[in-house]
Design a protein that fits this description.
291 residues; 8 strands
């Protein structure tokens, strides 16, 4: 048996996840397997390299300018996020990411993206990630607001389309117990109506009917995965951390004070349940330093 860590995405709501992961780092809590999509996958990188507070600094200092997220980026690069900056200057010189620690970590990390030709999720392991972090870029590439990302034989977009909460992949990999970090409150249910007009989807993604179908089912899939997480929690097979109140911000929130309040909420929520999490790791398996 093992305990997996599952991280939902959510754009700037990921500041909640950043707070949770900093609490884990401060309390020496680690996991042998981590699954993330979109912002969840981005946050996981620095946690695995032992630099969880990089995420704090990014949300506090570096999302405010146009380089991180802006309409200018979309006009210039065809993507609302400037991934060349995020995984370029920000990764290499401004807030250097410890690639060596990341590579040497024994954590099994999987980032989920959506295969636009099949509409199904594709997971990339840590060993398949190079310094360009193409898999994580793909996982974070929102439909309409980002370009399609090619990784190996796959054409990919946002992992949140096909697998918004990668809990089932963790369970299928043998993690009978999981800690799940969500970025929506307990009362949230995603609308089952398509997010985008059918005519617009047909124009933009006319070559990819399976992707359009997956986008139409996104609300149902998300709600089903939330129910699955709740059922696991009821059986004491999951600890679900989630905001105690709705995070009324957009995916592209840039106000530092707002993001830090959400970060603090995540940190506090994780500390509140830290003993439960450590007990689960001690009983059901985890790295030695998680005890």
């Amino acid at each position: 048996m093992a305990v997996g860590l599952v991280l939902e995405g959510g754009g700037m709501r990921g500041s909640y996840t950043a707070g949770v992961l900093c609490a884990f780092e401060d309390h020496h809590v680690h996991f042998s397997s981590i699954y993330g999509v979109s912002a969840g996958a981005c946050n996981a990188l620095s946690y695995i390299s032992g630099q969880a507070y990089r995420n704090h600094d990014i949300f506090y200092q570096y999302v405010q300018g146009d380089k991180y997220v802006s309409v200018k980026n979309f006009i210039k690069h065809g993507c609302i996020f400037d991934f060349d900056y995020i995984f370029g200057d920000l990764f290499h010189t401004i807030l250097p990411f410890d690639y060596e620690a990341f590579r040497q970590s024994q954590v099994r990390f999987y980032a989920g993206a959506t295969n636009i030709e099949t509409g199904l999720p594709v997971f990339f392991s840590k060993d398949e990630m190079d310094e360009a972090m193409g898999a994580v870029r793909a996982s974070s590439s929102l439909p309409f607001l980002s370009s399609i990302v090619k990784v190996g034989p796959y054409q990919l977009l946002d992992g949140g389309i096909a697998v918004p909460i990668p809990i089932e992949r963790s369970v299928c990999d043998g993690n009978d117990f999981n800690v799940v970090v969500l970025t929506r409150d307990a009362g949230y249910r995603k609308s089952t109506k398509p997010e985008f007009p059918q005519a617009l989807m047909k124009v933009r993604y006319h070559k990819y009917p399976a992707l359009r179908k997956a986008m139409n089912r996104r609300g149902d899939v998300y709600n089903e995965q939330r129910v699955f997480c709740s059922r696991l929690a009821q059986k004491d097979k999951a600890i679900v951390l989630l905001p105690q109140k709705p995070l009324d911000i957009s995916r592209y929130e840039k106000d530092s004070d707002t993001l830090m309040a959400i970060f603090d909420m995540g940190y506090t929520d994780a500390v509140r349940r830290m003993d439960e999490i450590k007990d689960m790791l001690a009983m059901h398996g985890g790295p030695e330093r998680a005890v």
